[in-house]
Design goal:
Structural class: mainly alpha
Shape: globular
Largest sheet: 3 strands, antiparallel
Radius of gyration: 20 Å
Mean pLDDT: 96
Helix content: 40-55%
Distance between the termini: 14 Å
Bound molecules: (2R)-2,3-dihydroxypropanoic acid
Strand order of the largest sheet: 3-6-7
Number of helices: 18
Low-confidence stretches: none
Length: 433
């Protein structure tokens, strides 16, 4: 039925995953998938480096170094780098008006890079290379603190759903309801030319996305104007947990390469975030949720983000409560972890971040579960990820009920997660009992 792939099948999938990464390589950076996402994406690239690291360490370092070539002077690392033109994607660089070289978007994405660079360094302790990235990572993390947490409360805000990487999560429905779309005008979406519209965000959401791009562009991406007036200003549990873990990893990495001041300031920021994130706990829901900082309103439902708290190293004392949620969800779905609570009316098994399973999120959740002493559950999440890939291929995401692939095919980060973690051929992967 839902068995772990045989040894031959696993070998075949390993080879296919390497082929996908190689085919999606555009020379120093990897596109997430052909067609739908034809540029370099921030957190995709960082996670893809983990896949390259299993067969080409040099290429893994380059992936991250290329991303950081696009770092802004103020420290921000953009969510898209438009290394070349491609009319098949909207909104292209002209919509962002970033005036940078290379052209980029004006927003950022989940800062998973420090965690990945630490993992690369453990595999390949190249001090000069790591030290160079440590300085850049530190500037990005300082930017997060200054630009997105100007009051120093230990929670960073996102200014656009795309910054969460979990674009159409129902958590954003309420905060987006305040965004005025009256000046957006006509535009032509490209995503639905590549992927079935049922698996993508709705037009009403795209209008909001474009209104937010317009706000930032008119503000010339000035961090103070955005902090004061951006109509979307939300503390995402996902981004906060990812940044908290990244701060700790940056501290460890900086110490290892002799950058003691950077290590110390990362520790200070991490301590502030550890305290700040507690404001995201919902007694009512028994889980961490996102908080609309503009309107002081917490999300009213749970999502896979709730479980990312464990990846951030918070909530260990609440691991029982958090894993009870996972157990409840497991009764509702065939494959863990749905991106959104399958007991909720807004759950949709195929629509992007309103239900489908994402291999990268599973990897993070499993890491958090293992850290919290829940290795058995971490293994269930790993095996489910492997089964999904073995059943349907290297899709962008998967229907948690049927296991069908959703979104783009031959997806780089899914291939990377297979190689680095879900493949039964991974050293340390457990045999199924
Ligand atoms: C998209 O275009 O759907 C991307 O997720 C934005 O980053």
């Amino acid at each position: 039925m839902m068995n772990t792939p045989s040894a031959e099948r696993a070998d075949e999938l390993d080879a296919r995953a390497r082929e996908i990464l190689t085919q999606n390589d555009r020379g120093g950076y990897t596109v997430p998938t052909k067609g739908l996402y034809p540029f370099q994406w921030n957190w995709d690239s960082a996670l893809v480096a983990l896949g390259f690291a299993t067969f080409d360490t040099e290429r893994a370092w380059t992936e991250i170094e290329t991303l950081f070539k696009a770092q802004w002077d103020d420290g921000m690392v953009p969510h898209i780098v438009f290394w070349q033109d491609d009319a098949g994607y909207f909104p292209g660089h002209d919509q962002w008006g970033s005036e940078t070289s290379p052209p980029t978007s004006g927003i950022t994405q989940p800062p998973v890079a420090a965690t990945i660079v630490r993992a690369l360094f453990e595999r390949d302790p190249d001090v000069a290379r790591a030290a160079n990235l440590v300085e850049k990572l530190a500037r990005w993390h300082v930017w997060f603190a200054r630009a997105r947490d100007p009051q120093g409360r230990g929670l960073v805000a996102i200014t656009h759903p795309w910054e969460s990487g979990r674009d159409n999560l129902p958590d954003w429905d309420a905060p987006l309801s305040y965004v005025d779309t009256s000046r957006v005008g006509d535009y032509q979406r490209r995503d639905t030319q590549h992927v079935h519209a049922d698996q993508r965000p709705l037009k009403a959401e795209y209008d909001k996305y474009m209104a937010l791009v317009q706000f930032g562009r008119e503000a010339k991406w000035d961090i103070d104007t955005i902090a004061q007036g951006n109509p979307f200003w939300v503390a995402d549990i996902g981004v906060n947990a990812i940044l908290l873990r990244a701060e700790r990893d940056l501290a460890a990495l900086a110490a290892a390469v002799g950058e003691t001041d950077i290590a110390e300031s990362a520790r200070v920021r991490a301590a502030r975030m550890e305290a700040g994130i507690e404001a995201l706990w919902s007694e009512e829901l028994n889980g961490y949720v996102s908080l609309d900082l503009r309107h002081d309103a917490k999300a009213t439902t749970l999502s896979a983000g709730t479980l990312l708290a464990l990846y951030g190293g918070v909530g260990a004392g609440r691991a029982e409560q958090l894993t009870a949620t996972l157990a409840r969800w497991a009764e509702r779905v065939t494959y863990l972890v749905p991106s959104y609570d399958p007991e909720e009316s807004r759950f949709d098994p195929i629509r992007y971040w309103r239900g489908p399973v994402w291999a990268v999120v599973n990897w993070m959740i499993a890491s958090g579960l293992a850290d919290a002493g829940k290795g058995d559950l971490a293994e269930v999440v790993r095996r489910d990820t492997g089964r999904l890939i073995a059943k349907s291929g290297f899709y962008e995401s998967f229907d948690p009920l049927t296991g069908a692939g959703c979104g783009g095919g031959d997806f780089s980060w899914t291939a990377a997660m297979w190689l680095a973690w879900a493949s039964p051929n991974m050293p340390g992967a457990h045999e199924e009992g």
